[in-house]
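Human:
Take a look at this sequence-structure pair and walk me through the tokens.
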Amino acid sequence: MQEIVSGLWGLFFSAFISSTIAPGGSEAVLAYQVSTGHFSIQYLVIVATIGNTLGALTTWGLGMLAARKFPVASLLPEKKQNALNLVKKRGVWVLFFSWLPVIGDALCFAGGWLKLPLLPACLIILSGKLGRYAVIAWMFV
């Protein structure tokens, strides 16, 4: 039982960390969990999606905090300036792509910096991440 619970927590934390500033390998953890067959695929996808979405919202919060202390966008590194400009131009819908490597974290940070509406942003981030994890799980069935 402990192995099963630790496997779920491992998936959750891997997904959470993968969606913050630190890199992670939540896709590999999900693929492994799917291949063991201990849990339903839907349950694993939900756990990974929730962890990854909460990580994205943590990055969002960091963006909001940064905007309070450093309101001038020119202080951002170039990678985050590009994301900030993209989010300004495309709005909350660009956050669907928060699952993408490298730029996804910057998009969430920019969303927080720009104080985009949290509930729509959260739902859009969640839907993108859910789609990604569903595809990954389906590939390893």
